Amino acid sequence: MRIAVEGCGHGTLHAIYASVKKTCQIQGWDGVDLLIIGGDFQAVRNSLDLNAMSVPPKYRAIGDFHEYYSGHRLAPFLTLFVGGNHEASNHLWELYYGGWVAPNIYYVGAANVLNYGPLRIAGLSGIWSGPDYRKPHSERLPYAFNEVKSIYHQRELDVRKLLQLRTQVDVGISHDWPRKIEWQGDYEQLFRFKPYFRSDAESGRLGSPAARYMMDRLRPKWWFAAHLHCKFSAVVHHDQKIDASSGKTSSLQADAIHTVKDMHNTEDINLESELGQSPKEEAFSSLGNVRNDDEIDLEMDDGEPDASEPGVAEPTLETKPPKNPPKTSGVSSDLRAQLPASFTRPTAAAAAAAPPMSHPEAIVNRSTEFLALDKCLPNRRFLQILEIGPISESSSTTSTAPYRLTYDKEWLAITRAFASINPTTSPIPPNKGESHYRSLIEAEEAWVEENLVKTNKMVVPDNFEMTAPVL
Fold it and tell me: 174 forms bridges with which residues in the sheet?
């Protein structure tokens, strides 16, 4: 299958599609089957959506997505994207489990597994923030300043579901880089172009632990990311683990526990372009200068302290007491007792580390090829076209051309098994362990087989509907 991968979208769909077309001409291809965009897609339908996007007001722009949303233009090929940290989050929240944002443009959702032709694709949206990881989604419109940011932070519940997968996937997608991935590529070259990455990398703060847990568990053949606005490739050998002290790999079993000491994520940095271009990447230069206001240094770090929380994810993380413990509020216990249950602080039991997980026998891939790309601007390395094939045993009913986007049987079963947990309700129930969920998922998988697979209902319907006015 021929695919195109683009880094951060930043509301420039016209330029992205034109770049794919030009690159295919250079390569001698007649097109691609699929375009993957690694986040910051900015599915802005109208000016009100800008209020839910984490960008300073003076730099907010409508972009060109609304032309595809309204039907004025049609995406030339299936476009699949994960969410980033500069999104019309109110729009994407409507599609928490994934769905069409426009004809032929599909949002993966907070977490999802989908099949397109022979490829099995797993995606995780958002970026890492330790303090929000175990929290529910308590954001409500109109979003307050802190909610505009917390809405796109990755949540343990979504990652917990992804870690229940027990069969091989082909492609992994995330906006944030998997934590410590930089040590498994040419990190010296990366640090020469981005010298301020070095301190974060050496202290173990660069990237997302959640994306790393997902990569180490699912072991896809390819992994695509964006966020840090540079092109970077690496190869992850899953018979190695990352040394917690140096960040570099050592020859130990991959299932050993990864130690994460610092859980802060630098969200926005003034990122310079890398030098040089390959022939394929030169395609964009001929399209003229495309203005993108997100090129400025947005200075939008959450400003939250680095917080290590017990049981923040699996594997177990090191914890340490906070430097500045919060002061007591002085609210009496009688008054607290009158509050709804959702206001109750999580107990120590709820925050306990999740039970360990065994590695699934059906996930056999030994290495993952990682590629991060820049955003769509002239002279930037933002696009790659690839010809790839599956390593999974896809259950898709449309594994030959013309391809169709289909639901994944195992993921639907996992989603049904977790359906009783509301991601907006506090507290989120603690992780009950792999063995507990296994029996629930197996029962739901039988239901999916009987009610969806056998009745030919696994193809994602082309049922896009406009949910807000344009402009």
Answer: 124
154-166 pLDDT tens trace: 999 999 999 999 9
CB environment 63-78: b (16+ within 10 A), e (fewer): bbbbbbbeeebebebb
Q: Comparing 98-107, 246-255, 324-333, which segment has the lowest mean pLDDT?
A: 246-255
Residue 341 banded pLDDT, cuts 50, 70, 90: low
Strand order in the sheet with 119-124: 232-237, 367-372, 222-225, 171-174, 119-124, 111-116, 405-407
Between CA 233 and CA 334 the distance in angstroms is 57
- Choose among 339, 355, 353, 341: nearest CA to 422: 341
Handedness of CA 110, 116, 121, 126 (dihedral sign): negative
Contact 80, 38 (CB under 8 A): no
The DSSP-derived string for 89-150 is: HHHHHTTTT-EEEETTEEE--SEEEEEETTEEEEEE-SB--GGGTTS-----SSPPHHHHHH
d(CA 73, CA 102) in angstroms, rounded, equals: 10
Mean pLDDT of 278-285: 40
pTM: 0.82
According to DSSP, the residues that pair with 124 across neighbouring strands are: 111, 174
Which residues have C-beta within 8 Å of that of residue 146, sequence separation ≥ 6? none
Q: Work out whether the CA dihedral 196, 279, 105, 396 comes out positive or negative.
A: negative
- Quote the CA–CA distance of 255 and 99 in Å, as a whole number: 33
Q: Report the greatest alpha carbon distance in the chain.
A: 73
- Asked if 95 and 374 touch (Cβ cutoff 8 Å), the reply is no
Asked if residues 36 and 82 have their Cβ atoms less than 8 Å apart, the reply is no
Q: Which helix (H) or strand (E) holds 187?
A: helix 187-193
pLDDT (0 to 100) of residue 249: 53
Using DSSP, how many helices (H) and how many strands (E) does the chain show?
11, 15
